[in-house]
Amino acid sequence: MSEPCSKRINPKQREFFNGRAEIWDSITTHDDEKVSYITSILELKGDEKIMDVGTGTGVMIPYYESKLDSGSITAVDYSENMIEVARRKFPENEHPVTFKVSDIYNLEMKPEFDLIMCYSCFPHFPNQPLAVSHLTEGLESGGKFVVAHSASRDKINNVHMEAGKIVSNDFLPQMNELAEMMEKAHLDVIFRRDDEEYYIAVGCKH
């Protein structure tokens, strides 16, 4: 199991997101058609155990819920204020979700999840190869690890360059670089899309 390494997380980055949590849903947009397309790629059967990494204010939660019958969602973010907003939107006593405040490197991962999704958050992970290898320790055999954005790599990188010093160097890698990270983490890359509309990679654990 990978050793916890919280020193890899920049505390100023947490402050950046904490300070914007209450207005996040008003300053960011997520195209429903595009997010629905990403959800369709997951081919959820209804009983999956899902980890939503970098959940933010819970953008993906209703999309998972629309596909789940008996499954569950563990929603993780290192910004406690983002999690607080998500909790208000999706109370745990009314939705099949458990919220957790943690940076990804301090999560104790064991093989229990059918899906680990990184939607619109992967650029913010320092040491991306380590992020992939650590997170995928939480997959059951046959489970899927997904990195997804509903915009192109260039657009995402440009947004971060213009968003301020704290996130200006938070970039998506080239798709072939991400695929290599996945393969080194014992994943078969079963889907990839890298164009003007999407950046998506799906890996399946051996």
UniProtKB/TrEMBL annotation:
Residue ranges of the TM segments: none
CDD domains, A to Z: AdoMet_MTases (cd02440)
Source taxon at top rank: Archaea
GO terms assigned for molecular function: transferase activity
Alphabetic keyword roster: Transferase
All residue ranges annotated as the Methyltransferase domain in the record: 50-143
Name of this chain's protein: Methyltransferase domain-containing protein
Annotated organism of origin: Candidatus Methanomassiliicoccus intestinalis
